[in-house]
């Protein structure tokens, strides 16, 4: 298991030197997710009223409107990989693990990606991580079966329902939601406009 603090993470993203204490305080107020479930809320008012939210909007995203939400729950599997047209910021509200890959390894002839290219990185609690637009990622995993909690900052409107759907061919066949291109493993049960993850549906245990 590698760490986001290792040199090996540099092609996927970078660790930002930011104080996440405001987020750590607020995220502990969320009720626990049901066992075995992962929850995601794109925009949480309490998080968007923090000074940290303004810092992300004004400095990290250069004045773009952004949303500040949270993904949390119980997970130890890959299940899927997504990408956006921009960086995504994650804040580790607990120790957690990210499984990531490179977008340039997608086979766009059939919108597939082989999971043997995936790497896993440990993210210590309180760490603020930028995942580049070229980085495939999905819901984090917990450590030792515990619930993970991750702040998620993205351009406003990301992950909302598509009002107009382009023709489902080429990359458009993976456009699952606004600014969200998605590939899933058959075991995930997800259907719709998605690409295919080939190979094993990796678990945290595969990287120990």
What does it look like?
- It is built from 2 helices and 15 strands.
- The protein has 208 residues and is mainly β.
- The chain has one domain: Sandwich (Jelly Rolls).
- The chain has a 6-stranded antiparallel β-sheet. Strands 5, 8, 13, 14 and 15 form a 5-stranded mixed β-sheet that branches.
- A hairpin with a 2-residue loop joins strand 13 and strand 14.
- The longest helix has 10 residues, at 51-60.
- It is globular and about 45 Å long.
- The mean pLDDT is 96.
Tell me briefly what this model is:
Helix content is 8%, strand content 33%.
Question: Which key features would you list for this structure?
Answer:
5-stranded mixed beta sheet, 208 residues, 6-stranded antiparallel beta sheet, mainly beta
Strand and helix map with partners:
Blueprint lengths: L1 E2 L9 E4 L4 H7 L10 E4 L9 H10 L5 E8 L6 E4 L4 E5 L3 E7 L9 E3 L4 E5 L4 E4 L3 E2 L11 E8 L19 E3 L2 E5 L10 E4 L10
């Amino acid at each position: 298991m590698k760490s986001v603090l290792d040199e090996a993470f540099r092609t996927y993203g970078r660790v930002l030197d930011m104080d996440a204490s405001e987020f750590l305080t607020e995220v502990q107020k969320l009720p626990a997710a049901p066992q075995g479930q992962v929850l995601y809320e794109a925009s949480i008012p309490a998080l968007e009223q923090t000074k940290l939210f303004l810092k992300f909007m004004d400095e990290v995203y250069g004045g773009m409107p952004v949303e500040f939400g949270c993904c949390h729950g119980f997970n130890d599997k890959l299940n899927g990989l997504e990408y956006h047209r921009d960086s995504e910021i994650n804040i580790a509200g607990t120790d957690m693990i990210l499984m990531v890959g490179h977008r340039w390894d997608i086979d766009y002839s059939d919108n597939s990606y082989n999971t043997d290219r995936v790497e896993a990185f440990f993210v210590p609690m309180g760490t603020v991580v930028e995942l580049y637009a070229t980085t495939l990622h999905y819901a984090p995993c917990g450590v030792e079966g515990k619930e993970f909690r991750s702040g998620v900052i993205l351009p406003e409107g990301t992950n909302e329902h598509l009002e107009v759907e382009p023709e489902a061919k080429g990359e458009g066949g993976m456009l699952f939601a606004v600014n969200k291109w998605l590939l899933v493993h058959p075991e995930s049960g997800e259907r719709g406009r998605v690409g295919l993850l080939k190979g094993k549906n990796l678990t945290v245990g595969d990287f120990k």
